[in-house]
Amino acid sequence: MLLTVTTTHRPATDLGYLLVKHPDRTHAFDVPTGTAHVLYPEATEDRCTVALLLDVDPQRLGGGRKQQASPDSFTLGQFVNDRPYAASSLLASALAKVFRSALRGESKDRPSLAATPIPLEIHVPVLRCKGDPVALFEPLGWTVTARAIPLDDVPEGHPLAGDSAYVDLNLTGTLRLADALNQLYVLLPVLDDAKHYWVAPDEIDKLLRSGEGWLAAHPLKELIARRYLAHRRAFALTALERLSPDLPPVVMKPRDPSLADLRRDAVLAALASSGASRVLDLGCGGGALLAGLIKDMRYTEIVGTDVSSKALDLAHKRLHLDNVPSRQAGRVTLWQSALTYRDDRLKGFDAAVLMEVIEHLDPARLPALEASVFGHARPTTVVVTTPNAEYNVLYEGLSGMRHSDHRFEWGRSSFAAWTDRICTTYGYNAALSFVGNVDKSVGGSTQMAIFTLPRKDES
Predict the structure, then answer these.
(1) pLDDT tens per residue across span 407-426
(2) Which keywords annotate this record (predicted)?
(3) Burial of 328 (C-beta count, 10 Å sphere; 0-12/13-18/19+)
(4) Do 265 and 176 belong together in one domain?
(5) Cα 386–Cα 399–Cα 190 angle in degrees, nearest 5
């Protein structure tokens, strides 16, 4: 991943004094996730550019400090991801280590220049962007250009056609170098909306230190605090109260149910209506649905399956399966299983759930999943949820699909056609509905299908 900082302040090579990195040399620094390189592609009296290049080592990325657990983690996740290429908290951490004195606004050789706003241009060629960079950087005095990066070699009309979730970001403005670097340190992970390490209380101090002089007046300070602190509500409240100690305590509005909450509740309601007692959660991930199932004693046997052993480990910890009461021992089981292969252990269950699973498969692999679930395992009820691609236009700042691992997202007609094909091929009936907000023009955010086998007296 790459970040460049350019100045036209004369003499421009004084940038090297501010960063304490000589323009005529290359510099390398060991960081917890790889090696950070500092070099100067150009260094003249009129224009000087410094580049921070972070070379990520996947094996080191997978170790070290405890990382933020992600429900979509998978076994090869430390190798198969965007981290070596897209700016994120990894780059922000490297920036903090490599340019430590510059972030503090200190310069032994050019102290007056360190305190002076100078013309700056910052370029981040690839940044995963979950939000509006203009709204984040423009209030700070930057002129912002964010060009969406299109997906390569995707024919028009293909489900994957369009822009990716990444932007090419350019910022121009006249600011102190220290202010510019501190803003990047905070806002890169905010735009990515992810941290590569566990967020502890000391992150509040880091946010307030880096946000000194600009964060308190930012119109999106609540969003910045919430995302920087990995959505830890208590941490965000503490940070906001410390930012403005003279104001009344910050009272955040009660959180409306998220789409994930609504989706889980809709699936649980569908299972309850089905009368099932033995249930499969296929592609269970970190166990969000299993946590709801285990609270309902109508379910006498609950099985969660996933291809990822790491996801199953997360589910195991989330459900506290090592400490279940003796009367519940054996009620919940976790199996590693690939849904594109037939597994005899999955046969004979009353109901199965595929909650936000099918869109993570390549379309060519869907028939194998269909044969495995609807043909071989053949539960009486199958509940499927998947995003409605048509609804994406209502998500501000979203370009491309909702998740970087989605292989496709269907609109309403495509999902309906798929459910019809399942019913025709495997003898199920299906009822379609939406979960979440419903728009008259594009439908609901999440599509849900409840497949049921007809009773013998109906066949």
Answers:
(1) 999 999 999 999 999 999 99
(2) Magnesium, Metal-binding, Methyltransferase, RNA-binding, RNA-mediated gene silencing, S-adenosyl-L-methionine, Transferase
(3) exposed
(4) no
(5) 100
